[in-house]
Amino acid sequence: MKNNYAVFIISHKRPEVETLKALQKSGYNGEYFIVIDDADPTIEEYKSRYGEHLLVFNKEEIWKETDTIDNAKILTSATYARNYCIKAARNKGYDFFVNLDDDINRFAFRYIEGDKLAIASIKNIDKVFEKYIKYMESANLTCTAFILAGRLIGGLKNPLVKNCFYSRPTNCLIMKSSTPQFKSTVCEDVIYAVDNNKKGFLTYGLMPIVIYAGKPCTGNSGGGMAEYYSTQEEYLQYFHIKVFEPTAVTLKMCSNGKVRVIFNENRFLPKILNEEVKKK
């Protein structure tokens, strides 16, 4: 299993790569790559830090292969790095790969202890990745993921603690290298999950492993996608999601001027029908 997957961390203007530090602190000993585009102004610092572990891709080339939804030719998007990771994993012969954002600062284990949701640090994350991949194989998943820690607000009362899976994972994705491409220039990880789940390429995050990182679809930690998200109208960002599944996604303007995205999972998650309804 150790030779069957590798970690690909997508990064931009953050050569310190907090995610790599968090991985190593959690005991990671496998292969890893830092993925940046050829227009990154800090490319030389990346080269000096990571050497042969650095992969630099041609952003224009990947843009031509990507369904961006719009025709604005917006190149400041993480979508191109994610799609390059898929291509690189295939070319390097990996059946699976882990696709991580670069601002993850902790991997942890959440578990029920009495009347609270307890937490413990991970010291053997190699085995965790392997267990998740084995589950992917047995359940025929295209993609699984760790859960963002912020999704568990409310502790034991949070439905995720009972259900153990989340249908729109972000930031830390464990994928088959045969996966379909990412689409859109914004919220590409959410769109990936919504679009692929309805097509049978099953994608969902699994408890009990969580990550601590920047908020999804905001780029709030500087570098990365922060500059792009800060200049784009919120409604237009989220409308990209609605394009892929208009019947399952509703955009609601709130009184504070923010946009709320409401998902109807019954309209994009696959269902198993009872044999009784089989056509005679």
Describe it for me?
Strands 1, 2, 3, 4, 5, 6, 7, 8, 9 and 10 form a ten-stranded mixed sheet that branches. 30% of the residues lie in helices and 24% in strands. β2, α2 and β3 form a beta-alpha-beta unit. The radius of gyration is 19 Å and the shape is globular. About 2% of the residues have low confidence. The chain is an alpha/beta fold and 280 residues long.
Descriptive key words:
280 residues, alpha/beta, two-stranded antiparallel sheet, 9 helices, 30% helix
Mean pLDDT: 87
Which spans have pLDDT < 50 for at least 5 consecutive residues?
215-221
Radius of gyration over C-alpha positions, nearest whole angstrom = 19 Å
Assembly classification: single chain
Strand composition percent? 15-25%
The major beta sheet can be summarized as: 10 strands, mixed
Fraction in helix: 25-40%
The number of helices is 9
Order of helices and strands: EHEHEHHEEEHEHEEHEHHEE
Cα-to-Cα separation, first versus last residue: 45 Å
The coarse silhouette is globular
Q: Structural class of the helices, strands and pairings?
A: alpha/beta
Number of strands: 12
Give the gist of this structure.
This protein is of the alpha/beta class.
Task: Record the SSE blueprint.
Blueprint: E1 5-10, H1 18-25, E2 32-37, H2 43-50, E3 54-57, H3 59-64, H4 79-91, E4 96-100, E5 106-113, E6 116-121, H5 125-139, E7 143-148, H6 159-163, E8 165-166, E9 172-176, H7 188-199, E10 203-212, H8 226-231, H9 234-244, E11 249-253, E12 259-263
Parallel strand pairs: 1-2, 1-4, 2-3, 7-10
Antiparallel strand pairs: 4-9, 5-6, 5-10, 7-9, 8-10, 11-12
